[in-house]
Amino acid sequence: MNQKFRYIHFQGVFQVHEKYISVKSGYPPGVPIYIGKQEANNTTFSIIWYDDKNVQVLSHLDPDTIELHPDKKQITWIHVSGLRDIDQLNRFFSKLALHPLIIEDIFNTKGRAKIEDFNDSLFIVLEMVNSPEEEWYSQKINIIVKNGILISVSESGDPFSTIRERITHPNGKFRSNGIDYLMYSLVDLIVDSFFYALERIEESAETLEDKVLKNPNPEIVREIQSFRHDLITFRRQVWSLREVVMHLERSESVFLKDTTRVFMRDVYDHVIKITEDLDMHREMAEGIMEIYLSSISNRTNDIVRTLTVITVIFIPLTFITGIYGMNFTFLPGINDPDGHILIMSMMTFIASFMVILFKWKKWI
Amino acid sequence: MNQKFRYIHFQGVFQVHEKYISVKSGYPPGVPIYIGKQEANNTTFSIIWYDDKNVQVLSHLDPDTIELHPDKKQITWIHVSGLRDIDQLNRFFSKLALHPLIIEDIFNTKGRAKIEDFNDSLFIVLEMVNSPEEEWYSQKINIIVKNGILISVSESGDPFSTIRERITHPNGKFRSNGIDYLMYSLVDLIVDSFFYALERIEESAETLEDKVLKNPNPEIVREIQSFRHDLITFRRQVWSLREVVMHLERSESVFLKDTTRVFMRDVYDHVIKITEDLDMHREMAEGIMEIYLSSISNRTNDIVRTLTVITVIFIPLTFITGIYGMNFTFLPGINDPDGHILIMSMMTFIASFMVILFKWKKWI
Amino acid sequence: MNQKFRYIHFQGVFQVHEKYISVKSGYPPGVPIYIGKQEANNTTFSIIWYDDKNVQVLSHLDPDTIELHPDKKQITWIHVSGLRDIDQLNRFFSKLALHPLIIEDIFNTKGRAKIEDFNDSLFIVLEMVNSPEEEWYSQKINIIVKNGILISVSESGDPFSTIRERITHPNGKFRSNGIDYLMYSLVDLIVDSFFYALERIEESAETLEDKVLKNPNPEIVREIQSFRHDLITFRRQVWSLREVVMHLERSESVFLKDTTRVFMRDVYDHVIKITEDLDMHREMAEGIMEIYLSSISNRTNDIVRTLTVITVIFIPLTFITGIYGMNFTFLPGINDPDGHILIMSMMTFIASFMVILFKWKKWI
Amino acid sequence: MNQKFRYIHFQGVFQVHEKYISVKSGYPPGVPIYIGKQEANNTTFSIIWYDDKNVQVLSHLDPDTIELHPDKKQITWIHVSGLRDIDQLNRFFSKLALHPLIIEDIFNTKGRAKIEDFNDSLFIVLEMVNSPEEEWYSQKINIIVKNGILISVSESGDPFSTIRERITHPNGKFRSNGIDYLMYSLVDLIVDSFFYALERIEESAETLEDKVLKNPNPEIVREIQSFRHDLITFRRQVWSLREVVMHLERSESVFLKDTTRVFMRDVYDHVIKITEDLDMHREMAEGIMEIYLSSISNRTNDIVRTLTVITVIFIPLTFITGIYGMNFTFLPGINDPDGHILIMSMMTFIASFMVILFKWKKWI
Amino acid sequence: MNQKFRYIHFQGVFQVHEKYISVKSGYPPGVPIYIGKQEANNTTFSIIWYDDKNVQVLSHLDPDTIELHPDKKQITWIHVSGLRDIDQLNRFFSKLALHPLIIEDIFNTKGRAKIEDFNDSLFIVLEMVNSPEEEWYSQKINIIVKNGILISVSESGDPFSTIRERITHPNGKFRSNGIDYLMYSLVDLIVDSFFYALERIEESAETLEDKVLKNPNPEIVREIQSFRHDLITFRRQVWSLREVVMHLERSESVFLKDTTRVFMRDVYDHVIKITEDLDMHREMAEGIMEIYLSSISNRTNDIVRTLTVITVIFIPLTFITGIYGMNFTFLPGINDPDGHILIMSMMTFIASFMVILFKWKKWI
């Protein structure tokens, strides 16, 4: 894969330069308008009910038929993928009586990671990076917990399939834990996805450092700048992720039991680790630029040294030939048949002296 | 539009270097004196009363006839545009019994964004950027809330016309919410206006980065310095904006109901986003200077390499011609008819050797 | 006015490098010794009593006759100018029963700005810059509030004459406010004086930036370093000023009524503005050094380019002349009467080719 | 020992770039999987019981036979070395009823230092550096305190042998203090081990600084970058160590008595000292890069000066020889037998003048 | 005094690179071992009892005979100088029943400044710089306050002789104040001693700045790096000093009465001043390196300009001599007796043109 293309592509992943105001401006706040990539994916709904005894999974169902006030003993997890069908989604969200700002944020795929703790509902927005097998992209994930129902919204695909699988295992931890453990599992998976991004950044950093040490060319400045772009963008994502997880771990939210809070602290430790690794890469990236600058200086030094050595050796010799090229009728030794041998010896001596001098100065 | 002119103009927008002391000094604090652009705009008053059932709008009215203690069930919003008629404005503000420092601040169009929570009145000062269609400028907006009346003061124009329009819609959110929702809407519109400034800054940053990567010339240093000026100035505005919004969101002010505070948190999120984008642009701007410096070094390197290659090839050759230019009566091969061919071959060989050496060193 | 002289002079204003230890060492703490400029100014006392009805002003009076326990309904403000007469001042301060450390600090004109809130007395030390009409200097101002008496001490002159004038106006704010409003007015005037310093710094910054962009010469490094000295020194003064004003605004001091605290908040806003402007100038000063460094690089680049262009054009030509300068009996075309025309054409062609090449490379 | 190899090796010690996600992903949290070096060491158990009267030590025992609810009056310290036998370890840990996350963390040898205070158990993870006699490496140490039992887990070897020895001394402090003093002693030994790392870093810093001052060559950039890598990595370890020790000192944990807390404060002082020394080395490392860059500039300056001196001396002389090399039939003095002497004197004069000029300019 | 030697010596003063672990390791914590310079000074004890009426001073007494539970009305101050006689000191300290960590710290002359507030005793460790008359060194001072006794321990000499003298004055402040005033006086003297160090640093900074502006040579890099070493080391000492004094001023320690706390605040102000001055010197030191780098660039620029001017003037001239040096049988004007005059005029014209061009470009 082409390195440079990669950077540019990567930048496209974490959307920085949202110009969403031009889209939104003129509308009052709280109106759901889709902001994001050109075309949203098709909307599909899947649902899973489970308690310690039973599990029931339904895919591709009609959201209008979903019963949102189920048996309180069961945990309901509805996953929504794709944001194209705004009307259908609006009907669905209105059944949940969500705050208008939540609905607005769900449709805006370019906001920051954040957490909102309304007293009756918890709303989490996070960026998720895809697994490394596929091409590189990221998507917004929304998690809403309200009335014992967890709704997760992804821009596309089914990023939480492994968790759904684990729930169906009869004696797994999900079955004996509450809805907060499900929420924790989703957040944990999202945080883990950032390690993939970190690995790619790390690879880029090492590639860059290698390049700059072995073969520094001006093109690399562009790559270093691109890499910085990526680091800055990624860091912003990580910092807002950190805020969300810290808030989850520290807050006295009713949506998190103490037994689950211990796990959330573990997730927070992972986020700290990501932050620290990222800071390390930033410091190294600064070092790469310095190495590049020093390598340019070194090469100029090399080139100038060559110029100097050759010039300084030949200039006095050329001067001597100039003397004997003068058209004076009399010049010492000019008519001596061995005159040229004498003068050539002198020149050889001068040249040798210069070479020895430069060797001593370690210039050659 | 000329880029350089743009920067200079932009700097004029966010006024940094106020030399207002020379105007003010000698007057006691609390005396209203107009500080700002050469000439203030004409003063006009417009008023809107509304509750959940009725709306009444009056434009260009005489402020002396405004009834400031209206029916408590209605929300009164008075918008004042232009600060020229100081006497009239003073009469108007004195009817409201505002604190002398508020009145002083209203007439000073060059202060920082700030919020003052007197117990009976709330006073907000913010900078607002105009919409991108027109030429680029910014103006001070003052918002005062007291006794169920909201007074907004702008230096010129009618920046809140969209909000007035929305109020007139019969079933809009304004009609069912209090005066704090109106205040929030104004602040939201002002914060959104900063995204326009951010877009312009972003464009400038990209233009600069492109220029410096493609065609770095000394002129660009001036532009980078200008761009920094803009960033620093804009950041100051954003930081004081941030303080104001944070204070609004966090304070226990009686002027903000909890339902509206949720919206204010959303505005705060926007401000954070602006701050982060700005920080990103700052880091990139530092990178641009580094790229420029490295590009100068690179070009010097290129030039010196050319000089070295040509000099190092020709200096030994010229030395050889010098030898055979000497006027010795005897020089080896001097009288040989093919002597010059031999010597030219030797010179060709030396030149070829040098060229190969330089190719190997990747200097040519 | 000579710019360089100005910097050096300026540095003398905010005294940084106090070597006062060598003066103080050996004395126990709390002993009043004059530390400062070579010679202290003559000591003069002036007093003003006022309440809402009456004002009485006395100048150049004998401090030993001052009655320090006057009618409680009146505000007493004693201004002391000049610190030469230590004995007299000591007698005067001992009548007030001030803490020994206050008296020591009054005589030390080189300390930091600070505020001490003893329970029965408030002690403020601030640096004050003179107004811009005169030559540039700064002086220490001490303000002591105790038992309804305000004593202000200046090193020289009468910096508060405008306030004394305003007090004498019958219906001014002073007459209806307490001693805390008087204290606030003094602090406000001192803070305003810093804007003058800021204006001078701003001018210097602009001058430097202009110079470095138009005519960068090595001398400017010295000026930039001087300017930095000034900024650092000034920033220290501003930071200690900020601490004092912040303490005044935030503390629960009994010496400040709530109505006056609002004004003090306004003063604090001014100090913040000064701090921000100063930070901006610091960032710009860093930029100036970078611009200078890049301009040196650019000029080296320019010079080397000239050298290269001329050398690279003439070296091959000189080589050709060298060939035909060789003393071989036979050289192609040597005896051709038009030989020199052919060879000159060839040389013209080579030179033209080089010129075109350099034009294409944008080196000339 | 080869310096460069050392750096690279050192980097291997503090594992930064864990790509453990690819190992973990797919497993639910809380499942113990060994993450670390290719092969874990053999698992061995040793146990020591002691109180103020008796000590009993058992090595290489079968963990399945360990009685984990011993006489409450005795302190039980079990040291586990090597993590190969996962099943056996799992059986052992399950007897202690540890939290699943603790067990997971024990098997992950690449996590951050951390402390978890469950109400009934304390869990500490720290990195420990080996003593300087052997080859350089670091290992994870886990310390668990629960029900009057302290379990320490090391990746290999017996790092706490000195403490075990001291416990067996009849009147040592261990015998009269509780289990918290034992925990403190382990942490103290681990913190002390960081001084070894610090000494090695210090040596590297001094070696680098010497090199760069005496013989700066491009190779050193690589070494500086390596050194930075080490500093960054080490600092991360120190910072997480600091967090753990600070938490231990400040928390109101029931696992630490006040008498022991005083000792823990002493340990914290040591950690602060390590942090400060490290910060100092970082600042010095930045200085080294600057020195290197300035030394390149200096050397280029030296070389260019040599080039200039030689060229500027000989170019005018060569021009003069050129003049008298022209084939004009008449040139002044060309036929004078002493013409060449005159011209050579002139050339000597010019050369001497140039030399004196350069001496005066301090170029030679 | 040789500047360079001074730096190196200075570094020896504030001991940074303690390798004390190799000495301590293997011993349990709390065992007093002397860590420090090769040889400790002889131990001497002197004692002073005083109250408002009487003073009694005893020097060089036998510590075993000191009565440590004297008349409660008197203040007992024991000064111990020199740490050689460890046994005697141990006996003495054990009579006071000091915490083992205090005793350990007393014998470690390389630790950080710190303060420990045990409930019954206060322990302060500070670095003290000697007065400027003598050669430059620093030493550790320990101050212990317990049971109305103050013990001060210095590595050598009698740094507090001035205080002892002042105590003997019948009506001094010491006599009417308690033991906390004595402690304050010692700390004040130690803090004041840092101003001496600051003055030396300031001198070094000014010397360096002068050197770098007037005569920048590569040797100065080494000095700048040395100076930075000193600043970093000194700053560490100042920061730990600051922590101690801040703790003393802010804590609710029973060892400090409110009347003395006011004085302690004054000491804290001095420490802040030292910190600020130091920060200023650091910023200036960074500036010095920049100036040096810019001066190298400038000198390279100067040299290259000279090279260019000379080369560019003579290369075309030499080319013309080359043309007329060619051996063509016919060259225009070659046989004209005034040909050489014409050609020389042409060359003069070209040279003049070049000189004018360079003057215009301000290269000469």
From TrEMBL, chains A, B, C, D, E:
InterPro entries: CorA_cytoplasmic_dom, CorA_TM1_TM2, Mg/Co-transport_prot_CorA, MgTranspt_CorA/ZnTranspt_ZntB. It comes from the Archaea. Its main location: membrane. The keyword RNA-binding does not apply. Keywords: Cell membrane, Ion transport, Magnesium, Membrane, Transmembrane, Transmembrane helix, Transport. CDD domains: TmCorA-like_1. One of its GO terms (molecular function) is cobalt ion transmembrane transporter activity. It is found in: Cell membrane; Membrane. Gene3D superfamilies: CorA soluble domain-like, Magnesium transport protein CorA, transmembrane region. It is a multi-pass membrane protein. Pfam families: CorA. The chain crosses the membrane at residues 303-327, 339-358. One of its GO terms (cellular component) is plasma membrane. Belongs to the CorA metal ion transporter (MIT) (TC 1.A.35) family. Mediates influx of magnesium ions. This is Magnesium transport protein CorA. It comes from Methanospirillum stamsii. The gene is corA.
